[in-house]
Amino acid sequence: MNLVQKLEQFPRVQMLWGKTPIVRAENISSETGIELYIKRDDLTGLALGGNKTRKLEFLMGEALACHYDTVITAGAVHSNHALQTAAAAKKLGLDVILVLRGKEENRGNLLMDKLLHADVRVYDVKTGRELNNIMQDIASDLKSNGRKPFIIPIGGSNPTGVLGYIKAAAEIVEQEQEMKLDFDYVISPTSSGGTQTGLLLGFKVLKPVTKILNIGVGDPREELLEDVLNLINKTSEAIGIKADINYENLKAVTVDGYGFGGYGTIVKEVIDVIRYAASKEGFYLDPVYSGKAFYGMLDLVNKRIIPQGSKVLFIHTGGLGGIFQYEEIIKDML
Ligand SMILES: Cc1ncc(COP(=O)(O)O)c(C=O)c1O
Asked: From the CA atom positions of the chain, what is the Rg in Å?
């Protein structure tokens, strides 16, 4: 059984419109000396689009197959994952509770959550990990009232969610054949690690010569590496593939140094990169994830760590709502 057939064994609900486009970034290519292409995973079609749609196809497949009636998930108030999960659940007729961390201001993704009637609960806690206990308490309450809650972890990053990015790897390899392209590098942001894990596993099986680089966006590095290694092991076991990726391999492809002080910091260097990409190519990166990763990619090109002439695919993972969530901070940086 090949990898695609293995993926077909898992329940999945179609949420994407179809394959997301791969487009050549003509102007940035000529300015940087690489051949840059963008995989437009910001255009998946659910809510404001983004990488979570791919994970949710499998997560919602599991929810329906197991007859859950309420989806609970967590994240920061600006969470793109929470918004997309709410949209997916609502579309499928399931109840949804979002357990969010931060200040309750009705803007950006939080406003979008409320517009689709999600049950939004905002807590003033410091870490995402504290939200896990709150989700458990909510689930216990629901169970004692006869409901069937389904907890989706932060970022949708469990082995079921990772299947979405293994499938994305297969989609990219197929598009390379259709478009007669052959990428040297595939680059994406990484935070809860599901996107990274799926790409690493998918390319390991389908096209191991491609270098996968995942750029950290400010999460604690050791926690990220530990989480991804754990996800790699659990997912490869679930799907029946041999990963052969150890801590040292993982460390080498998980790029550090572009977090700008930590997860969720909004900084002028990244806002300038958002403006650069928008003014050269007409698409918008976001200030929390894809903007930091794009900054990192351009820096690796400047330093010639990514050699001139390389064919590079940058995965635009979405996050548009982040611009509106942080418009007050961003407007002072213009
Ligand atoms: C826009 C965007 N890009 C990238 C990521 C990181 O993906 P992952 O959590 O799979 O590492 C996220 C996660 O929330 C996101 O919302």
From this structure: 19
